[in-house]
Amino acid sequence: MLKISSLNVNGIRAAHRHGFTDWIDQTDPDIICLQELRAMEHQVPGPIQKLNYHEAYHTAEKKGYSGVGILSKQKPIRIEKGMGINWVDSEGRVMMAEFEDLYVFSIYAPSGTTGDERQELKMEFLDYFLPFAQKFLSEDKPVVMCGDYNICHKAIDIHNPKRNKNTSGFLPEEREWVTRLLQTGFEDVYRSLHEDEEDLYSWWSYRAASKERNKGWRIDYHMSCPNMLDAAEEAVIEMKWDLSDHAPVTISYNL
Fold it and tell me: Which family does it belong to (predicted)?
């Protein structure tokens, strides 16, 4: 069994203060995909570096911003950072770890919530990402692309779809993009294992006791090839942990 967790830490140092290593000790994932590190590599807290994991990070050039990482018990054969687009790569948003029988990605899509300019860049990122991701479906190994895509796909994935229909993260063109990603052959593993279940979210605003009231958004995904979906046995959003404003999305694959 291979247990893969994905978590937007909203700052790796803050997540460490909130019990990140306790979470690892208790849940014991084989691979952990991290997003929004908001730290340089040398700023990752020492106790995390002392864990029994191989570490790889792709940090942003701008300090305290963005960045992704992959921690794994098994040493990857190869690490690839970025996707060949300068502005995307300078923000540390896409990273791949290749293992003997699997490709694992940590993805942190831009947010468009700060205004039109960032929303345009988000849509540009999504346009670049689609053909980039598609290439890996034709590889000889299974692939899973974990991360914070900053989009709720369907009304079931957001607590108030009517009120949020004009909000970045739930815009028609963003939702249509997720549909296209799935049409190319990717699978939304978590939703496939929890097909019509409501109130399943992975991010909650810090405002208005959103998490306590479970008024959230499901924006964190394992997007995989069909083989990985077939192998998926259990999918959990680990809501009980308050490591950041996101919860870990953890899926066990029978590989």
Answer: Belongs to the DNA repair enzymes AP/ExoA family.
